[in-house]
Amino acid sequence: MRKIGKENKPTRQHHVPQVYLKNFCDLHGCIAVMDKRERRIFSTGVRAVGAENDFYTLEKLEDPYCWEHTYASSIEPLMGKLLSKLISQTNILVQNGATVISPSEKAQLAVIMVVQLLRGKQSREYEQKLYADYLPEAIDKAKNLFGPLSNEQNKLLEAFASDDYYFKQTAMDVTLDSDRIAQYAGILCSRDFLIYRIQGNMEFITSDNPVMFINSITNNARPFANGLIKPTTMIYYPISPKLLVCAVHPLAYFGVLSDQDCHLVNLDACKEVGFISSINKKQISQCYKHAFARSVGMMKQFQERKGI
């Protein structure tokens, strides 16, 4: 087995990329964090949040860090380049209603959103529940189909049920399945992408589950409760404190937003305080543990409004 040098062991692994979180940092490189479980707010660097030791590591593979290397070498450079370009293309000199992303950039953004949705803590927890629920049934079917199993085969099945490695390997295979990503990204890209830009002193916050699905009728934002293909599902992805991507089904609102695909849409902070506050509240309610903002002061104000 090929040995991995100490310098090539990226054990601290981000499920929310640092290149994304840096868009929400202040001038000193710090980001404000709301821990909704411990009910506290603090400021830190992006290396300390959106990460977990060995989240993607699979020790039994020849390269245990292959999945982390894949994210670091392909997805995250694309994310950094595209989001930086989009932020620069929506500066204050760009007029409301302008087309700010091309069809190819929209397709890339859809891939970034899908990968982020699949790679995070909420998805891992959801997959773990499905694995636990369906594995016993799958094992029973295997026994019925193949008849009595040998001791070695029984031990292997027991390992699948008890060894976390096999779950992680299955989860990572699903998460980075290129066909699945392409399929989901294609469906997402068929939606109309509106780029909301706040004008005024309000800001968007993000979280450790930044790609957010909301039912436009019930306002339910619980992860995995709203389907990608449903016309009632609204998809939101904040890319900076001032910018929010909104992916709208072509049939939503009788198709009146279709002519705004890839366009910049200004939000007056005074007139749209209700919408902006609602989006921020939903980011907190549907995140796994942490919400992020540019300033502790803004986060504390929001905490007071929310009453948590």
Describe this entry's structure for a reader.
With 308 residues, this protein is an alpha+beta fold. The protein is built from nine helices and eleven strands. It has helices spanning 18-21, 66-88, 103-119, 121-146, 151-162, 164-175, 178-189, 273-286, 296-306; strands at residues 12-14, 31-35, 40-44, 51-53, 192-199, 206-207, 212-215, 233-240, 243-248, 263-268, 290-293. The strands form three sheets. It has a five-stranded mixed sheet with strand order 7-8-9-5-10, with helices on both faces. A four-stranded antiparallel sheet has the order 3-2-11-6, covered by helices on one side. A hairpin with a 2-residue loop joins strand 8 and strand 9. The longest helix has 26 residues, at 121-146. It starts with 11 loop residues before the first strand and ends with a helix. The mean pLDDT is 89.
Any descriptors?
308 residues; alpha+beta; 4-stranded antiparallel beta sheet; single chain
